[in-house]
Structure formats: structure tokens, C-alpha cells
Specification:
Elements lengths: L1 E4 L3 E5 L5 E6 L12 H7 L11 E5 L2 E3 L7 E5 L2 E7 L3 E8 L6 E9 L5 E9 L12 H6 L2 E6 L6 E6 L6 E8 L4 E10 L9 E13 L7 H4 L6 E2 L4 E11 L11 E4 L2 E3 L2 E8 L6 E8 L2 E4 L4 E5 L2 E8 L3 E9 L4 E9 L2 H16 L23 H12 L4 H19 L20 H13 L11 H16 L7 H6 L10 H11 L1 H20 L15 H14 L2 H14 L21 E3 H18 L2 H15 L21 E3 L14 E2 L9 H4 L12 H8 L4 E7 L2 E5 L1 E6 L2 E6 L6 E5 L6 E2 L6 E7 L2 E5 L3
Parallel strand pairs: 19-26, 30-34
Antiparallel strand pairs: 1-2, 2-3, 4-5, 4-10, 6-7, 7-8, 8-9, 9-17, 10-15, 10-16, 11-12, 12-13, 13-17, 14-15, 18-20, 20-24, 21-22, 21-25, 23-24, 25-26, 27-28, 28-29, 30-31, 32-33, 33-36, 34-35, 36-37
Length: about 775
Amino acid sequence: MYALSNKNFSLLTDEKGILDKLHIVHDAVNTNWVIDKDYLEEHNYPDNDKLFGNFELIVNHKIYTNKTMIPAVNVNDNEIVFVYDFSDFLLFLSYRTESDRALQYQIALESTIDEDLIINKFAIWTSLAYLMFRDVNVARNMSHSCAVFPHISENFTKLIAKKRDNKGPDLGMYCIKGSVKNVGTFCRYTNRFREQVSPSLDGALFHQIILIDKEFSNGDWIYDQIKTNNVLESRSVREWTFEFMVESADRNKYQLHPTIDYSPVVISKHEFQAVIELPEKMEIKDIILVKKDSRSSIHSFLKKISVNKYSIRFPVEQLGEKKLEVIFSNNRTDFVVFNVMPPVEEIINSRAEYLITQSFIEDSNQSNKYGFQPISNQGESLGKLCFLLKKNLLSEINEEEVQKVEKSAVYYIKNKWFMNGNFQQPINIHGDFYRIIDFDYVAHVFYLLSCYGNDTLQLNDRETYLQWAAEVMLLRFDETMHSQKREKEETKMNGVFNLFIKDLLKDLKFFSSHLYQPLQDLWNRFCLNIINQKEQFTAAITEHYYDNAGFGPTAESLSLYGDVEAAKRYGELILANIGTSNDFRHQNPDRWWEALSYMIHSLWGGLVSHSALVVFELTGDKRYLHAAYNSMMSVLYCYDWNATATNNRIIKGEAASTYSVAYPNLNKRRLSHNRFGQSVFMEDEPELFAGNATGDDWDMGEELVAYLDGFGTKTYVYCENDKLICVNGELKEEDGVYTITSFAAFPKEIKFYHMEMDDIEVQKGMNKVSIKKWNNTWQQVMNT
């Protein structure tokens, strides 16, 4: 083994240059930032060939590997160089401590012959510690595992590895020399869902940086446009250098790459905005707006704010993904990807129309009559119904939509999950067990029906549905009503009930007081149990050993309960979970199971985004607001029929629950930057997915309820350093009057933070308000 260290880093590598340990010196818990042999042995995973430093190299269609070759090794005080001699060329893999603070990983190909060589593929495994330990000690998964967020561009690719506890230090891996094609992942996992164990799911993602690959593409024109030279000229050298940096508050002192703070989504006919900050001695040569079929300079919109800092703002209209490409004076380029969408109200209404006309099973002779396709035994499939009901509560009521959902609730849901519709006798719908969290979705449908007037309802009155919702939630929270260990334990698990539990309790107190107190007591007990175990972060465990479907809703529950300190403890896990990237689609809450890669998952992406928003409204901490907004905008991509950079082109009103961020997804290449549902894995595990995941949108809907509860009705404005910042809207100033245009689907409210100003209710049919500062006080300007 070979060791190298400086003031920031220490590493240990084997005789082939495979990185076994990478530590940040001042890290209190001494996290190993790479997946190592110990992890693979502990979990019985056969992936030694994917550890950091392994490579895939094809030259002139011949495969070269390190499986049977031992390289020469050159060692000095600040560098370890591994030299693979493949006769026609040499491959150098080097670890170098460039200065007291920096660690570099250098890769070089050197031709040793008088002929050009064609590099068909060159990829390096850079498997940072994106893993899930099969361990109920949550602290281990929080402090010794990281989420990895990619920023891909020709010359400024980086991977930001963020500790899951958000306590840092974090790690950045920056490309500072050479070009990168993309970053792929391979997932190894174990799923014991059918073995009556909980938690039952763990796994790891192995990252691979693609330096050259002329063969792979999968329909994303943005990344397929990245061209890498695949010729190694005779007697020449090709080099790539990656620099590791400790990510911390003072990292900008050593800024390696440009930073571009940009609008992830713009509503058509409004303005894209970005702020660009450059490292020293770097200048902007041009800025190009890239569409699928055209390129145009927009340099004239660029404005200099200060030394090395610029802003750009310009109108956009054409729908779909756009690429803003920044070309620097040295001809290196960086870019961001944003989306231009129609007003979100159009997406919401089109989705509702599609569900009613294409999804609802009207034929009473079918076995699942009055259900909504795709049919599933899991409660997530009822999210479509919750969405339809929520949408109609916020807009003009479409009675047909509400009444079809009511039919489904009474004739389909009630008897599918409960014996003869008896809420105290749940059916073992999953074979020999039932899932407690399924009842959250059932109760949500019943509760939303209770919000309608009896003149709209046809089959029962609103008090009946309110009682049904309460009875199902009593079953959901009360472990004494269940006989099996699994079900008892799952009553302590969090879920989507946060979207309605407070409103349900409020209505019960007024309409059904005999059900109110038992449910209030169970809710209090549920929250107190979380609070009593907050030091152990026990609620981060679900069916996964560490899961944003656990800690996201838990932060929300604690916010609703009013325990600010406990909510913030879990909230930090959300901040570590939501990515930042140069591509709006990659700013998703980090999750891997439903795609076997990091991904947008519409349901839990939307729900975790909403949890972040709830914590923001409790604390006023703007980090949660921006995390919530960016991640919710990525979720809406799953509904966007105007998308052009993904193979699965959906029609208006259609949806697909998952988008794989890896490019390529090395488990299933056809999923790379594509939208799909879990049914694509039916071919691999038919027993697991049969009856549960039968279509691309089977588990979608509750994320739109979460959207409508938050950004679907609210726009946020706050003041920072005497500057107004608008989130989920557009802000324009003229003569000291600031006009706020809401991007919400159904604008109801403009909420103000750090301004000592009351929130403003938006008038029906309007989406704008104006404010002005008089005598150091913000006030509304009444439009005439």
C-alpha cells in the first residue's frame, strides 16, 4: 500500500493505484470518502473492479484493463505515479499533493508509436462514498456516506460530495485540465422487501467519469453535443487533472471554477436571470443561448456588477430545455441548463383532464371498476385522486372530476384495502401483510372529499367522509390495532399524512369531537416519540436504512407540531439531500432506488421539497426556500410534454414518475436522462413489481398536492442586503415601485420574510401585486 498526505488530505492506495482510503485530515469522524473493499466485503458486493482508480479503456477497438497487469510505481515526497505500459501507449495515474491544501488526481495517455491511435472509450471509476450501510445505526449513514451532485460541462465538470448530516466537511472534485463527456453510475443493491424484514433495502452507487466515448448517446441533445477528441496523435500526450477541495464557507478564496446562479425554470414570455462569478484572471468572451436547433449570441444582455461578477437577464418564449453557454477568453466553456414552461396552471389542468378521460375506469364490468389506471396494490397509486380533489378545491369546481373520484373512493378504495369496507379489518393486500403507509393515501382521499359541500357530493355527505378519514388514521397510528410486528413498527413511520393531518384534526374538533381527541392523542404521541429519539435520528429509517422519505416528512411533522429545534435537526438532512447543479433536472432531492441511479423521483422529490418549504415557513431560513423551489421545479419536468432532451416524449397531460440523472445509467442504459416508471424493472424482478408498479405514472399525484399547497398558490419575497429576492415569481422595479408577478398555478398569497411586512392576499383572477418602501416601511401599492 502507498500513502500520501498534506495538511488537508490523507490517502492510501494499493499497488494498482486503486484508492482505498481518502480522508480529510480535520474531519472529526474521519469519513472515508471512497467506497472501499471493506464495504464490499461487509455487504457481499462483487464490485472490486468499480473502486476508485479502475478504468475502462478501448483503443483501436482493443480492451485494456488493470485486471491482470501490475503497473510500475514511482514514489516521491508529494506524488505517487502508477504507469501502465500497454506497448503502443502508456497510461499514467497519479496522486499529487500540489500544495498544502490541494490534492490532485492526474490521468495521462502517452503514445509511444509513430501512428495515431483511436480511443473508442476511456472512463475512470471515481467511486465516492455514495453508499447505504446495512446498519440501523443512522449516524453511520449520516456521517460516513455522502450524496454526490454532478455539474457536467466540457471544461468545468465537478462532483460535489455532501455529507448526509450536513455538518461537513464536504468534498469537491474539480476538473481543472482536459474535457469530460459525462458521468455515469452503476448501482448495486439488496432488496429483502418480501422477507418480512424492515428496513429491507440498501445499496451503493459507483460513479464513473466518462472522458471519451463516441458510441453512447440516449436522446439528450444538450450532452450529446459535447464533443471530445478521440485521437491520440503519434508521440503525443493527452492529460486530465482533477483537484480535490474541501468544501467549506471559505472555499471561494480558492475559487477554481466559474459559478453561475441561475433561474432553473422560466415561465414563457418572462425573463431568464443569472449571476456569473469568475475566478481571477478569467474573462467572458461570449454568451450563447443554445436551443435544440439553433445558437445565438446574447452577449448584449450581459452587465458587469463588480470585478469578476456579471448579471444577465433576457426574455424567453419558446418552450422546452435551453442551454446557456458561457465562452471564456481562453476558449474554455461552461454552461447551465434551464427550462421554459407554459404557465403551470396549464400543466395542472391538462393533467386533470387526462386522468379523467384516459385513466378512470368507467366500465362497471372490469375487475377494477372505478379505479384510476395504472392500478396498483400500493397506496401511492391513489395520489392521482388526491391531486384531482386538491386542484378542484383551489379552482373552479369541475363536478365530473370530483364525482368520479367519489365513486372510486366508495366503490373501489374502500373494499380493496379493507374487508367488506370495515376500517378495522385491513386486507393483506401484499400477500401475507399490509403496509401501514398505504392508509395515509386512503385517508387523504376521504379527507379531501370531506372538504366539499354536500351539493357537490353524490354518494355520502361530507361528515361521513370526515369520519372515514379519522377512522383510517386511527388505524394508521395505533399500533395496538395490529397483530404483526412489521405493521406495529410501521405505525411509527412517517408518511404523506403531513399534507392533511392538521386540517383533519381542526375539522374533527368542530364536526366530530368524539374522534378528535383519540386522534389528537395519537398524533401527539407520534411526534413525541420522534422528539424523544431525535438524537439518534431514528425516523430517517423507513424500508430503506436511510431515506429522504423518512427524514423529509419528519422535519415537516416536527414543524407542524411546533418543535423548532427538532425540526431544524432533521431539516439539515434535507439541505444535504437536495442537490445543486448546472442542470435544473439535477437539483433533485437525492434518491436512487426507483431508477438505480440518482434521479428525480416525482413523488418523494415533491414531498421532500414541500417539507423543506414547511421548515422555511417555520424558521425563515432562506436555504430551505431555495432548496424547496429548485427541487420542485425539477419534479415538474416529469409532467412537461414540451421536453425535447429526453427520449420519452409524453403527450399533453401524460406523466412519468422518474428521471435518471446518470448519463449513462450503467444498470439500464436506455433509462439514461429518460423519464419512466418502475415497471421498467418488471423484467428483472417480476415477483417484486407485479401488482405494484404497472405504468409510468402509477405512484404520481401527491407531489402535485404538495406543489399546490406551496408554490402552486404562494410566491415568496425576502430582503437581503437591501435587495429584494423573489422566489416563484418575477420582480421588476420602476421608480421605486416593485411589481411582483406570481408564477403560481393558482395565485393566492405573496408571503414576505425579513421585511416586517404583512403577507398580501392575491385577488381572484390576478397574479400581480406592487409594493414600495415609504419612510423605511414596506407597503402595498394599490393598482388602479
